[in-house]
Structures are given as structure tokens and as C-alpha cells.
């Protein structure tokens, strides 16, 4: 795989000149780099770094990716790994069935926060609690993006959405679920981390987390989980350029960056199944 | 102690020989599934399905398979979906209530063209509509097989795996409390239904990075590799046409008796039909012109058999342990060539498990006799 260095733009200051194409590199496992998601969306970056990690670990021909339903589902069409499309919320159960049937495969799921934390919370909790040797990825943007920006169980207090127009309040809407911290309490989980794609530094850190999670799976140590905070300027009612900072200022104080649980050096910990 | 150790300490399904053994229906069905090649099972306890799950948990690990005690029926069907996508012969099941929870996935699994065997160890016969119309969304059909006893269940469960593989479609087997819990001497040895179709469509990861990575999805079967996405109209049209072919080509099946010169034909399925058949046989012995049809495939429904009977019979009487569901398929088959009456009714004991006090040959015979008098 070839890598080329790209100029790094400081994301906290507005560009002084119009954008121009300097490179059109597309990772090997993505057939078509162009997408129809909104400008400023963080999900294509998250998908890209997951696919780069799979490719760099030379796991492409063992990978079965199971997709939930959200904006990111569009990528099921143009990833060059095998894809199994699940229903909303159900990807971790499908992953369990795949992994139990093909113990040597690399099984990963991709879900959004509406898919995972609302519709399918029970699925991801039990899958991680059992310690299935699968890797679950959460693309958390704090809204149901595909329906147009509605409140999820991960939406932080104060956040405006189309069905919490004055901002989420604990009195009216209840508190958000901080999912990575919840999963890290489960004995079956072996690796839990939360990253983000709002700055180049965070992208690089998150890619390391993704690789670590996949390595935990191939070592059969138990469930691995990476939450990736992604920007949704459309659903957040903010300008595209403001979205990376909005994530830092509003979402990260609740859903904190970092490795939450790491049992990768505990060889006695092992996953469920064969 | 692991599940595998438990299994190895008792008799295991691998010992299923041609010699009949005295087994409870649930145990026999589990062994038959394993003989048919089932290597993945997931379920959630619910009477009268529970003992099938127990038997699969006991026997499947020793055969190199996996049985997952799922956190709910929603996850059980999801796990079976994942296993089926790898080409592993897979099954799940429950009773009607649990199957209600599974319907969304069962619809999507059908669009995704995956073979799966689903058991409904039903309470009474209230799930006929759920089974034959499908409780899920959209245009889809499942093949539905309805055994009358343990021996037939053992056969049809094995055939269900074959039909599921041939048609790449879920096949539902309708059991009940009686079939689950009746002890019977039965062989659970593998039955050969002919060559298995290839499973080259199944996922194993190997096509990753080749530019032609596989896709299994309820809305498409090939990646376009573009930024436009799938054409759902094209896919649903094509999938619907495949389902039409399945509905035409799967041979409908029915057991018939005493149809020669019958003025009245009584129609019933499953365990209930055994009581009806006995009542009809008794009436025939007494000279009554009454016949009997038992649909074995509930979908495709044996329409031809009923239509042919309608050319000579004056009336049809439908006996079901529910408020009247299969009667709609009987009416659609007879198409007003003869009178169609309902003589069944929901009959359960206080447990609701479908142990029916009305399932009594004398009682069934009396209802048929009344109908005979009404039409004469």
C-alpha cells in the first residue's frame, strides 16, 4: 500500500483560500471514494480508517462486515470486503452467528448510535457480555442522521435535535447513555476505546484503537469495541466548519476520548464460542 | 462443566441410528435436525418449545455445532441469520408468541435469500395466519410444513433443511404441545433427499480485496461499487419473481381419506387432524358419506386436492383449534363450488398451552354429524 503525505490544515481556524484537489487517494478496500453523504459528515472518515486498518493488518480476505442501518449503510455498496446487511439494531447478533460458524474469520459490525444504543442496546450488551470474539464499531454522532437529525439515547444534554428543539433536558428526555463506559463494565469485553474523527490527531489515535480492537479479536481474547465520535453538522444545526469544534466542546465532555478498558495483555481472558 | 462434556456423558445425536428409539418429540426433533446437518441453533426458552432448545444445547456442541442460549427471540433469530449467511445449516424457533418477536427478521431473511429452518412449537392452532401469511412486512412467503405426529415431524424437519437449501428460503415447521411432549418410538437417522445445492453464495470472507466482495442483504445481492447505491425496485421485483416460482414448484401435499362419494369433506391439519380422521373413519363405518383432507404443506396450500374434492362434495367442514383461520384457504380453494363451514373453535386448558379438552373423537364426531344433518 502506498501512502502519501498530505498538508495538514489546522482545523480550528477557517481556511483562507478555496479548497483545491491535491490528492485523490482512495484506500484499497473502498471501491469508490465519492459519497452522497452530507458535507462535513464524519462517517466516511470513520469507514475509511476501519478499512485502512483491515487492509494494513492483511485481514481483508477473512473479513465479514455486518452493517446496521444509518447513513453509513451506503458504504455496504462500495467496500471491497464481504458484507452482511442486518436490520436496525441487530448487527451484533448476526455477528455472533457468523463468528460461531466461522471462528477463523474477522467479524466486525458497524452501527450508529440510534442503531446500537436505541434500537439494539440489548444486542451489543449481551454480545460483549458473552465475550463473543467480534469487534463492534459505533459511529456516534448523537443523532439519527438518516431520518434528518433526531434525538438518540446518546444525545448529550442541551443538544438540539429535531425532536428536542430547545435542547435535550434530563427532566423531559432523560439522561444520555454513555455506552463505552457501560460496556467496559462487562466481564466479556476485552478492549473498549472511544476515538473521534474531528481532527487529524484524533483520526490517527482512533486508527490505532481500531487496529488494537481487531488484534484483540484475532487473539481470541473476547469482545472488542471502538466508539468513534463523528460529526453531523446537518443534524447538529451547525456550519460544516464548526462541527469539529462543536464535537470537542459539547460531546467530548460527556463521551470522553481514550481507551476505557484494555485486557489485551491478559492471556487468561478469552472469548466465547469455539 | 461445559455443554460439550454434558453431551458426551449421555447418548449423543451422532448415535442416531436407523433403529427406532423411544424418545420425547422434542428430543426426536432435535436429533432429526442434527441428522439433517443442522450445525447452528439459537433459542430462548418458552413452553412448549423449551425442550427442543434443551436437546439442541445438549447434543449440538458434540457435533461441532453451536447452540446459543439467546437473550431473547429477537437475538435468537438474528444469530441464526448470521449463521445462515455463512452457509451453515441453521435453525431457530419458539412458540407463536416468540415467533411474533422474530417476524421482522424473518421477513428480511427471506428477502436476503437465506435458508433457515424455523420451528413453531405452537400453543393450539392460532398461529396459522402468522405462519402462512407471515407476520412481517412486505411480499414474502415461507414454505410451511405441518406434521401430525412425532414420526412425521422427524421426517418433515429433515425435509425442511433440504427445501430451505434448495429454495434459499426459510421453511417453517408447525409443531405443537402434543408433538413436543409425546413419547414415541422413532428413528432419527439421516434421510437422503438427494443432492444438496451448492452454497457458493455463502460468506466466508475470501472474496474480500478481490474487487468482487460478496454481499448478502435484504435489499440487494450484488455490490454496485459506486456512489449511487442499490436499485430496490429491481431487487424486490426479481426476489418476488423467485418467490412466485417457489410457490408454484414446491409440491403441495395432503393426506386424504374416504373421499370417494363423500358429500361432506372435513379439513384439518396437524395433531388435530388425527382426531378428525378417526371420527371420519367411525362415521364411514356407520355408512355416512364423509371424507377427510389433511393439508401437510400449509404453504403452498394443496388447493388442487380440495378443488377436485369440491367437484363432487356438497360441503366442506373445517376443524381447527382456533377461531377459524385455515378456513380462508379452504374457501379460496373451493371457490364457491361447495358450502364451507367452520366446526372447530379454540379449545385450550387453563394453561393456554393448547392441551385441548375438545380434542376428543366423540366430540369431533358429533360436530361432523350435525353438519351432515344440516347439509342433507
TrEMBL record, chain A:
Residues 69-215 form the Thiamine pyrophosphate enzyme TPP-binding domain. One of its GO terms (biological process) is cellular respiration. The keyword Chaperone does not apply. Pfam families: TPP_enzyme_C (PF02775). This is 2-oxoglutarate ferredoxin oxidoreductase subunit beta. It is an enzyme of class 1 (oxidoreductase). It comes from Nocardioides soli. Keywords: Oxidoreductase. GO terms for molecular function: 2-oxoglutarate synthase activity; magnesium ion binding; thiamine pyrophosphate binding. Its EC number is 1.2.7.11, 1.2.7.3.
